[in-house]
Each structure stands twice: as C-alpha cells, then as structure tokens.
Specification:
The complex is a heterodimer of chains A (113) and B (112). By secondary structure, chain A is an all-beta fold. Helices cover 0% and strands 56% of the residues of chain A. Chain A is built from no helices and 11 strands. In chain A, the strands form 2 sheets. In chain A, strands 2, 4, 5, 9, 10 and 11 form a 6-stranded mixed sheet that branches. Chain B is an all-beta fold. Helix content of chain B is 0%, strand content 57%. Chain B is built from no helices and 11 strands. In chain B, strands 2, 4, 5, 6, 9, 10 and 11 form a 7-stranded mixed sheet that branches. A 4-stranded antiparallel sheet of chain B has the order 1-3-8-7, with no helix packed on it. In chain B, strand 9 (87-94) and strand 10 form a beta hairpin. In chain B, 38% of the residues are buried. Classes of the chains: A mainly beta (113), B mainly beta (112). Chains A and B meet through strand 4, strand 5 and strand 9 of A and strand 5, strand 9 and strand 10 of B.
Chain lengths: 113, 112
C-alpha cells in the first residue's frame, strides 16, 4: 500500500520567516502533488512534480526521487499563507494507467503578524 | 480556468435518507473523483471515474455508489445515510490520471 508521511503536523511561525514542509513517500509513488486548503474547505493545486524543482511566486517545491522526499518552501511568509498544506502521491503504472492520489494528513500552518 | 462546482456547500440529512451529491466540471476532463475529508484522517478516495459510465472503487467505497452518465457530471450517492458519513465531501477532476487534479469547493454533509 502506498504511503505518504508529512511533517510537521502543525507549524506556527512569524511573518517573514522561511517555511519548510516535508513529505516522504513510499516506493511506487511516481509524482507528488502539493495542495493548499484554506479555512472553509477550498483546495487549490499548487504544484505537481516528478523531478527537480518548481517555483511559483514565493512558493518553491522540490523533489528528490532517490530519497523519496519532497519539500514545500515558502519564502517571506505572510499571514495569508496560513492554511493546511497537503502533499499527495500519485502512482503511475507502466501500462499507462494510474492510481488515485494517496494523501498525507496535512500540515496546519499559521503565520502570525 | 478549470471550474469544478458542487451542488451544495452545506447539507443536513436524516439517518436512512438517500443523499445525492453532484459535481460538475467544465473543462472536458476525462477523470473525476470523490473524496471525503475527516479530521486526523486526511483526504480519502471513495470512487473515481475515468470515462462516462466507468467507475473504480477507491479506498473507502462501502456505503456509497456513483453515477457518471455524462462526461461533465459525477454524482455520489449515499443509499441510506448514516451518522458516520457526516463529513466534508470533495469532488475533483483531471485531464489525465497523471495530471494534477482540480478540486471543487466541497460539501459539508451532516447526518443526524
């Protein structure tokens, strides 16, 4: 069974701090999806990556395939970044099919002014 | 922009009622998904569909069924609602299974 472990579970930081959220995943997962969920429920896709690094504004996602590890970084954090961040692993099969996402339990991030 | 909409944001139903949750996407996506989200358990896949009239069970299909008669619409059905089905239900869609998923706003269902 595929597994995705996220850490930390909760993170409180001051505005301006550099934030790192970590995600480790099991063999069989080929790509990682980072999601953001604000209070109220809406989920937004941030990144999907299977190698290297992606950047969007103050958000950076990296993945190390050998170590089966991905990180989400937030630079110059702001109170509006407060949300739950979820990583999810996707399994791709050689025949072209894929499985549904396997989700981590999420990291609850609070950025204080 | 991809838009995924769900029929209700909040729903209250009684035990034993049949409940329909509808999801519509406007980007001609092949794949649609239903998840439930519970505190401490994260998101769990109930069912997904990779084509009209095609469906696959996810991790927790018991007590649920689905229907996909048209490509843009994916319905989740609770045949006889129970209190342990009180949860946030999220629908998502994607172009291909390997592509990122786009989520709807969620339906918070309470079964009393």
């Amino acid at each position: 069974k595929n597994e995705v472990e996220q850490s930390p579970q909760n993170l409180t930081a001051q505005e301006g701090e550099f934030i790192t959220i970590n995600c480790s995943y099991s063999v069989g997962i080929s790509a990682l999806h980072w999601l953001q969920q604000h209070p109220g429920g809406g989920i937004v896709s941030l990144f999907m990556l299977s190698s290297g690094k992606k950047k969007h504004g103050r958000l950076i996602a990296t993945i190390n395939i050998q170590e089966k590890h991905s990180s989400l970084h937030i630079t110059a954090s702001h109170p509006r970044d407060s949300a739950v961040y979820i990583c999810a692993g996707l399994t791709l099969y050689s025949g072209g099919g894929a499985d549904g996402l396997t989700f981590g339990k999420g990291t609850h991030l609070i950025i204080q002014p | 922009d991809v838009k995924v909409t769900q029929s209700s944001r909040y729903l209250v139903k009684r035990t034993g009622e049949k409940v329909f949750l509808e999801c519509v996407q406007d980007m001609d996506h092949e794949n649609m998904f239903w998840y439930r989200q519970d505190p401490g358990l994260g998101l769990r896949l109930i069912y997904f569909s990779y084509d009209v009239k095609m469906k696959e069970k996810g991790d927790i299909p018991e007590g649920y069924s689905v229907s996909r008669e048209k490509k843009e619409r994916f319905s989740l059905i609770l045949e006889s609602a129970s209190t342990n089905q009180t949860s946030m239900y999220l629908c998502a869609s994607s172009w291909l299974l390997a592509y990122e998923q786009y989520f709807g706003p969620g339906t918070r269902l309470t079964v009393t």
